[in-house]
Write a structure and sequence with these properties.
Elements (H helix, E strand, L loop, with lengths): L2 H5 L16 H4 L12 H65 L1
Length: 105
């Protein structure tokens, strides 16, 4: 006989079957503690507050983004106005110098 045939031989003429039953103490385990139910009022208040916080945060970030865009546009307009003012000032100074030259002749 080889080793493989010995593995499947019954012990002393009986077939050994494995039991799949669960022991009795496991069946009689302590019941799970019951959770305290959340009342409709507390659940409603919690839901309302969480929704209000989410909506407020989203509006805050939307307004913050809009403010940044408006601020950048205003800064660009101010710099454009400043450069136009400098060009106009240099043009006026040039005209005044030409007028002074013409008056001295």
């Amino acid at each position: 006989m080889n080793v493989r045939s010995k593995m499947f031989m019954p012990l002393r003429g009986r077939v050994v079957a494995r039991s799949f039953s669960v022991s009795r103490p496991r069946w009689e385990a302590a019941p799970l503690p019951t959770s305290k139910p959340v009342g409709a009022f507390r659940g409603g208040v919690f839901g309302f507050l969480s929704g209000a916080v989410v909506a407020g945060a989203s509006v805050y970030y939307y307004i913050l983004g809009d403010y940044r865009v408006a601020n950048e546009m205003l800064t660009d307009d101010i710099s454009a106005l400043q450069s136009a003012t400098l060009k106009l000032q240099s043009y006026i100074n040039e005209l005044e110098s030409k007028m002074n030259k013409l008056q001295k002749k």
